[in-house]
Amino acid sequence: MEDCISNSYDIADPRIYTMIFHVLTAIEIPIHIFGIYCILWKTPIQMSSVTWLMLNCHILNVLLDLSISFLSIPFIFHPTFSGVSLGILDFPELEVYLVLTLIGLVVVSIWGIYENRYYVLFAKGNNSMWCWIRKPIMVINYLRAIMFFIPPYFVIPNQTEAYLKTAKGLPCRLEPSYDGRKVFLLSDGQGLPLYCICFVFVLTISQCIPLFIVIIIKLILQGRKKESAISSRTVKIRKKFVIALVIQTVSPFFLISLPVEYLAIATFINYYNRSLNCFSMVLFSLHGICSTLTMIFIHQPYRDVTIDTIYKLFAMKRKTNNSRKISVIPPAIQL
């Protein structure tokens, strides 16, 4: 029986696995910094209502990225709730909580962007009830994201006993430590950690989807009203902006949901695949860079700055004309 961590010369090889994360970290840091620059200094005034929400979501994505690809580099032995940290930080109890809490905060920050669109476009001045309850709901959502994974820490098993039980259930030889780093066992087979993760995901998504549907329906109805004070062009631009925000948030969300779905299925069917476990973690760590690149290229103000920067870096002159606009958003339209 081979070791659960062995030199297999593939993605499950700890040397290759660690190198992948180091390369990702080196690539993503400058991209994330450029994303912060775009949000803070290149966001047009028409998008000012979402500037700080986008920055909040972006920073949380950056922190989640770095916590996985730099601090932790988790090598998991799923479907058991165990693993070892290969990153610069060797404190798995803290790392697990930090990563999962940041996931919850990222999802809530996405909800916050959708809620802001609903509030600014429809509720402000028209829906006094929502104006009154929106902040308490936001506080509750953020508190839930911070606290949802605390329950599993009340039932962390005795590590020696849990190790013996877990080692018997794996098709490979699980050592109690690797290169001086102890294997951490969050649970000895109970599904509480998975239930907590599913709970916060389902609850938050059930808030995001209705908000998005309501916003789109209201924008469509608003555009059809002939007596509406808002022009059809304004409605169309607002609709495009909402769709752009959805693309920006949904595309990286898939990179979070796919590994979570695989891990959930693997838990229920008790399936162990070392390479898929490692691949799911790599895929998971790509969500931040995907989010930043999507944000940069989906919003024209950021896209123009990015293209201009690329031309300057390669000392190329970009062909321009006087009719080229910096933003697709007319100055008179407030988003």
The CATH architecture category equals Up-down Bundle
Q: Which range does the strand content fall in?
A: under 5%
Estimate percent helicity.
55-70%
- The rounded distance between the terminal residues' Cα atoms is 61 Å
Compute the number of helices: 11
The average pLDDT value, as a whole number, equals 84
Instruction: Write the CATH homologous superfamily.
Output: Rhodopsin 7-helix transmembrane proteins
- What class would the helix/strand composition place it in? mainly alpha
What order do the helices and strands follow? HHEEHHHHEEEHHHHH
CATH-defined fold name: Rhopdopsin 7-helix transmembrane proteins
Q: Regions with pLDDT < 50 over 5+ consecutive residues?
A: 321-328
Side by side, the strands of the main sheet go 1-2-5
Question: What would you call the shape?
Answer: globular
Radius of gyration: 23 Å
CATH class: Mainly Alpha
Q: Tell me about the biggest sheet? A: 3 strands, antiparallel
Keywords: Membrane, Transmembrane, Transmembrane helix
Organism: Caenorhabditis remanei (Caenorhabditis vulgaris)
Protein name: Serpentine Receptor, class H
InterPro entries: 7TM_GPCR_serpentine_rcpt_Srh (IPR019422), Nematode_rcpt-like_serp_H (IPR053220)
Notes on the protein architecture:
The chain has 335 residues and is mostly helical. The chain has one domain (14-306): Rhodopsin 7-helix transmembrane proteins (Rhopdopsin 7-helix transmembrane proteins). Helices cover 68% and strands 4% of the residues. The chain is built from 11 helices and 5 strands, in the order ααββααααβββααααα. The strands form 2 sheets. The protein has a 3-stranded antiparallel sheet with strand order 1-2-5, with helices on both faces. The termini are far apart. The model is unreliable at 321-328 (pLDDT under 50).
